[in-house]
Queue: 2 jobs
Job 1
Amino acid sequence: MYQIRKKVAEISVYLYQQGLAPGKSGNISLRKDDVVAITPTNVSLRDIDGEAVALVNLEGEILSEGIVPSSELQLHLMIYREREGVEGVVHIHSPYATGFALAGKKIKILEGFGPVQEEYLEMVGYAPPGSEILAQMVKNGLKKEDALILEGHGLVAVGPSLEEAALLSEWVEKTAKTIFISKMLQK
Ligand SMILES: [Zn+2]
């Protein structure tokens, strides 16, 4: 299990370094069989090492004593229970994508979103962070898509591996930035 915890730690630090998870924001997880390794609550992704990563089963029972998982644990677990084949989930409040989310503006899909089907990235309405209703809405929104904007909040990306989910989240953020720049230049 150390390998999957180490992988979560590596990708956490990567996301922080890319500016995608400022402060103590953001949570990510990786599924292997019936076990989910997820970032702990209230720790910056910058500071996470393998031993800080929580382990839970798909029902949410904590397997790593003394480590409290992210407050968005339910959101991660619901996605894994719904989407066979998803092995990585990334939830971040990256600046540009979250700016679009706060303004309630959709992000147009540029080349490179892979399996995302719609012309605009899907956005789900606002629900409080950490709530069951947010987890439900995200689960439903991700039935057909691999990336989703949460209105007034941030984004979620999933993939067949945690690396893929992280790269997709990075792509969404950079796309939001590109669209923002393009709109500024048109003024
Ligand atoms: Zn959040």
Job 2
Amino acid sequence: MDSNSIAAPGGNEPRTGGMACLRAAALEALAAVGWADKLARVRAIGDQAPLDCARHYVAHVALPGRPAVPVLVSPSEVPQRSMATLEGRAALLHALAHIEFNAVNLALDILWRFAGMPDAFYRDWLRVAREEATHFELLNQRLADLGYAYGDFPGHDGLWEMAERTRDDLLARLALVPRTLEARGLDASPLIRNKLAGAGDARSAAIVDIILRDEIGHVAIGNHWYKLLCARQGREPVACYAELASRYNAPRLRGPFNLAARRAAGFDEAELAALQADRG
Ligand SMILES: [Fe+2]
Ligand SMILES: [Fe+2]
């Protein structure tokens, strides 16, 4: 990776007028190990934080920082539990909390890793990082209400693996993280919400409603910057997506699709037609 400056997480460089560059602060938050420390660091990045869009940062610690638990296992090893039991509902809420913890890291990663985008790009992803932090906290508090905590169940690392695969390619990152993995969350949310409501857990269902509302905005941000980069590079968005999904071995998306949420998030009819034509 080429670089013209180096920021070590935990260090104080670069700073402007006593405040860390938003992107350097994002790298420090990404490196933070404890979830409470990570969330506090996200919240501490103010709207007025200075921003150096051109600088290339280098991480000197393993990313992302994360706590010793949950233990990471392969997706097939995450047990499916019945919604009829308290433990089953807690396991589902834990899985959602783990997704949100990863989503905080993914938003922070796009902030520090990719230089050369306009100011608004970084402000958008800071907003996403904050909302993901709120989602995590809502779910973690709900887990606590039920007598559980983040780390009580295993989790899988599928979201971060896609971040690793697309670490050198912003167009692929946008195509395959917000526009694929987060968009899959739009499809899954109504089913999860109904499972929780059907089990009599209206409070957890209400949290999923909040998350779905915000996630439409995250996917919309992904769509906006993906299409802008496609235009900049003279790429046709639908064909480009198919090529990137194949090159980076993206998961094949299966219905039912939440077409209303996807339209609200900025997918156009050509993209939705391609999605439904590809369903296996
Ligand atoms: Fe989220
Ligand atoms: Fe999100």
